[in-house]
Amino acid sequence: MAAETRRYKAPRGTQDILPDEQPYWDFVRTAASRLCDEFGYGRIESPIFEDSGLFTRGVGEVTDIVEKEMYVFEDRGGKTLALRPEGTAPVCRAYLERGMQSLPQPVRLWYWTPIFRYDRPQAGRYRQHHQFGAEAIGDASASVDAEVIELLWRLYEELNLKDLVLNLNTIGDQECRPGYLEALRDYYRGKLDDVCDDCRGRFERNPLRLLDCKNDRCQPIIAKAPAFTDHLCEPCAQHFQDLQTYLRAADISYELNPRLVRGLDYYTRAVFEFQPLEEGGQSTIGAGGRYDGLIEQLGGRPTPGTGFATGIERIVLNLKRQDVDVGEQWHPLVYVAYQTPKAREQAYRLASDLRRASIPAIGAGGDRSLKAQMRHADALGAEYAAIIGERELSDGTVTLKRLRDGTQVTVPTDAVKDHVRAANP
RNA sequence: GUGGGCGUAGCGUAGCGGUUAACGCGCCAGGUUGUGGCCCUGGAGAUCGAGGGUUCAAAUCCCUCCGUCCACCCCA
User: Fold this and answer.
1) From the CA of A92, how many Å to the C1' of B54?
2) Parent domain of A149
C-alpha cells in the first residue's frame, strides 16, 4: 500500500508575502511607525488570541464579526479563545488590565497585527489580513478624534495614495440614539413592502444599517429617511461641530455622509471611512470612530476612546493600482565568484568579511563554472562580481567587476571594502 | 451563507474527442583557452485539480467533490 503523500496548501484566504512583495510592506510599515512617533503614539503588542468573550462583549453579540466570522477554539484547558478579529477590544483590555488609567490621559497606542475573520475571500479581503491601527483612550474631546483622523490622513499622504475620500458622520450616543432609531423605524414601518429583503431584516436587527443599503430599490427611501444630525443631543451635536472645526484647522477635507454607519456595536458619535474614488465593494481602506462605551462594557469605569484601523492589504492593493514607487527589493552589493575550487576558501572568507563590514554579499557555491557564477550574479541583481582566479589567489588580489557597465579593476583583497564603499555610499 | 467565472510544468498560456500534451517566461547546462546581461543550442520539469461516468479512444463530453478568483452579505 503506497503511502499517500499530499502537497500542503496555504489555508483558504491566507497568503504568503514573499520577498518581492516586501518592499510594499516595508514602505507602509516604515511610514506608519515614523508617523506614530511624530504623533506620540506608543506601540502595543497584545496576544494574537484572547478570551473569546472579549470580542462577543466588546464588539457586540449580533455583529457579523461575532456571529459568523470569528475563529473560535478551545485550548487544552477548556478555555474558549478567539483569534483576534479586530484590534480595538484587545487594546482596551490591555488598558484596563495594565492600569493605564493611571497614566496621563489620553493614552495613545498603536498596533500592527494580523487579523482573522472567517469570511469568503475576495479581492482585497482575506481570512488573515493585517491592520495598522491607533487608539487614543481616556479623552472625550473632539480634538482627539481629529488627531487620529489626521494621523491616518497623513499616512495616506506619505504613501502618495491619491483620490481617497474621507467620509464623516456621527451616530450619536446612548442619549440620543434610541430616539433616532425610533424615528427611523417609524419612517420605515409603513414602507417595508417597498424595500429589499435584507432591509426587512435590518429593520429588526440593526436599523442603522438600513441607511447604507446599496440596493437600488431602497435608494429613494433612504434619500428621504430622517437624518441623525436632526436628532442629536446637544453634547453630540457640539462634539460633531468641534470635530469639523479641528479638521478644517488641519486642512483635512471631508465629506459629510449621513448614510455612513459602522458594523461594530461599540461606535458612538464620530465615525469615518476612507474610500478610494474607484468604485468597488471591498473598497474601504481605513475606518474608525469613537467608542465611548466600550471600556465600560469591558468592566472598566466609563472611559472614552477613539481610534482607527486600516487594512495593509488594501493599502498595498491601491499602491499597486496607482503605480506608487515603493523602492526596490534587496540585492547583493557584491557577489563573490571563483575560478577554481582552490579559491573557494578565499572566496568564502571574502564574502564573510564583507558582510561583517555591513556590505550585502553573497558567495558562490558548488561546482558551477565561472560563467555560470557570473550569470548567477547577474540574476541576483548584484552590483559587483568579485572574481578570485589563479592570478588573484597568488597575488592576494581580487578582480572587481561592476556589472552595470562591465568595467573592472583588480585590487588587493583588503581594499575591496573601501573600493565598494567609495562607489556606493 | 448565496451567485457567477476558472482549474494543463515554478509562473503565464495553447490544445477542446484520436499517435510520445505545445509555446513563452523562469530554472540548469553548453556555445573551447579565467567573466554576466543580447543571441544560439541542449536539458530538467505536467499522475492535464480529484473521483466517477460516456466512448474503441478523453486534457478535451457529462456528473460529483475540492480548490481558486470575482460579486453579494459584511468588513480593513
Assistant:
1) 63
2) 19-176+232-321
Chain B nucleotides covered by protein, CB below 7 Å: 1-3, 26-31, 34-37, 67-76
Task: Report if residue A297 sits inside a domain.
Answer: yes
User: Does pLDDT of A291 surpass 60?
Assistant: yes
Question: In chain A, how many domains are there?
Answer: 2
Per DSSP, the residues of A378-418 read: HHTT-SEEEEE-HHHHHHTEEEEEETTT--EEEEEGGGHHH
Mean pLDDT, rounded, for A218-233: 88
A264 touches strand B (CB under 7 A): yes
Going through A211-339 in order, the beta strands assigned E by DSSP cover: 255-256, 268-276, 286-290, 305-311, 334-338
What is the pLDDT at residue A67?
Answer: 79
Strand partners, A401: A385, A408
User: How large is the average pLDDT for residues A325-345?
Assistant: 92
Structure confidence at residue A2 as a pLDDT band (50, 70, 90): very low
Instruction: Please check whether residue A94 lies inside any domain of the structure.
Output: yes
Closest CA to A129 of A18, A13, A274: A13
The complex's ipTM works out to 0.88
Tell me which amino acid residue A315 is. Answer: I
A282 and A145 inside one domain: yes
